Amino acid sequence: MSSNALSNGHQTLPPTSDRKPESAESSKATVKKKTSSRKSYRHTTAVHTTVAASVLSKEAPPASYRGFMNLAMLILAASNVRLIIENYLKYGFLMSRPGTFVPPSDYILFSITFIALPFNLFFAYLIEKMAVKPFLAELKRVKAQDQQPTLTPKILSVNRRAGILHIINITITILYPTLIDLRLNQVSSQDKNLESPYTVAYPNNITFGDILYFWFAPTLCYQPSYPRASQKFRLGFFLKRVGEILIACTMMYFLIEQYANPTLKNSVRAMDELALVNIVERLLKLSTTSLLIWLLMFYAFFHSYMNVLSEVLEFGDRTFYLDWWNSGSLETYWRLWNRPVYHWFKRHVYLPLVGQGVPPMVATLTVFTISAALHELMVGVPTHAIMGYAFGGMMAQIPLITLSKPLEKWRGKGSTLGNVLFWVSFCLVGQPACVLLYYYQWVITHRVEPA
Q1: 348 given a catalytic annotation
Q2: How far apart are CA 350 and CA 217, in angstroms?
Q3: 23 or 157, which is more confident
Q4: Where is the composition biased (Polar residues) (predicted)?
Q5: C-beta of residue 279 within 8 angstroms of C-beta of residue 270
Q6: What's the 3-state SS for the chain?
Q7: Using an 8 Å Cβ cutoff, are 226 and 315 in contact?
Q8: Contact by Cβ (8 Å): 187, 128
Q9: What integer pLDDT is reported at residue 14 of this predicted model?
Q10: Active-site pick, 166, 343, 375, 384
């Protein structure tokens, strides 16, 4: 065989002396395998054998869209990297030491207010100690005479006085920090059912240690006892949550200084001129930053911080939130996202009103009115702009709930349409609009010129 013939082949055969002879059985098996593989293919083989819908059709079986989710995350990451670069090129590095522009007097006033807060709980403890005395005397009397305890006129009178003192105590607790910031520079009751789900029964719970535990416990609803965690203190779990709090707070501060502040400052002129298109553009730009800050706040507070407290106090019930991000309506969201506040309003406002014959819709309206007033207080007082924006935003939830509730019934719980409506109305429009309005009011009040 010529050298050209060898060079045109796909392989160069090794010298005869180097080749190992193949066995007859091996050669037959190889030939049989090649023959069977050739026979298994037919160019007339049917490829369409079943009736099936396209994967993206409604009639198709459920399919995973993880790939699209990964693509969306990549697009979001790329968009945010572009925004980071654009922000840096436009403003440079804006972060400074936290509290640089806070006057020393504010630190003093804050310290006074913070130190004074536990006095509210201490006074409540003293009030309950006063209210329990006639009840203990009644228990002692009936025990000696082998009788059933009754609510004597003296007990009822003391309870009425205790209720008034509690109202005064709560009012002072709310007004005191409010007045400091502005600088101007429940009736005790005895359950008739002797069976109790608690491990400690009234009045044995009226102790300073009990009220101190309630002060630090991650709940707003007082109970004589709480379910305790079965496992012991986990140092690794505790340190992980503390690390999450530090990272989240750092990220929030960075987002506020580097992104939110410049966007808000650049929005003042558009607000002055009522340039609607520019306002909408500023609002959409702010929505991304405010949403990230809000999500970080949620995770840092409701997950990390409350789990830190729970781990230290061995607090067992840690359902501080449920899967609110899948809410198909605003009503579902308000039930799931902040469980401690939801339980407080349900226990101390909604159910007592409904129990007195108040229609549920009126009771719901009352809950939202109180919540709206507290939101206005929390936002309006620190910004020195009690303008009713937060109050109006909260009250606007009621018609939105009325509109979104039938949608959830129609499309089912957690429907995509209802979930999108929730995200758009609450996070992409409502929150940034509220932030922009309060910032603009602050600028007007303090005559701050945009940079």
Answers
A1: no
A2: 23
A3: 157
A4: 1-15
A5: yes
A6: CCHHHHHCCCCCCCCHHHCCCCCHHHHHHHHHHHHHHHHHCCCCCCCCCCCCCCCCCCCCCCCCCHHHHHHHHHHHHHHHHHHHHHHHHHHCCCCCCCCCCCCHHHHHHHHHHHHHHHHHHHHHHHHHHHHHHHHHHHHHHHHHHCCCCCCCHHHHHHHHHHHHHHHHHHHHHHHHHHHHHHCCCCCCCCCCCCCCCCCCCCCCCCCHHHHHHHHHCCCCCCCCCCCECCCCCCHHHHHHHHHHHHHHHHHHHHHHHHHHHHHHHCCHHHHHHCCHHHHHHHHHHHHHHHHHHHHHHHHHHHHHHHHHHHHHHCECCCCCCCCHHHCCCHHHHHHHCCHHHHHHHHHHHHHHHHHCCCCHHHHHHHHHHHHHHHHHHHHHHHHCCCCCHHHHHHHCHHHHHHHHHHHHHHHCCCCHHHHHHHHHHHHHHHHHHHHHHHHHHHHHHHCCCCC
A7: yes
A8: no
A9: 47
A10: 375
385-429 pLDDT, tens per residue?
A: 888 888 988 888 888 888 777 776 776 666 677 778 778 887 778
- Longest Cα–Cα distance in the chain: 127
Bond from prior residue into 203 cis (ω within 30 degrees of 0): yes
pLDDT confidence tier of residue 77, bands split at 50, 70 and 90: confident
pLDDT digits (tens, 9 = 90+) for 93-124: 777 777 666 677 777 777 777 777 788 888 88
> Locate tokens 């496992």: which residue?
231
Angstrom distance (rounded) from CA 327 to CA 179: 38
- Six-digit token pair at 25? 């059985």
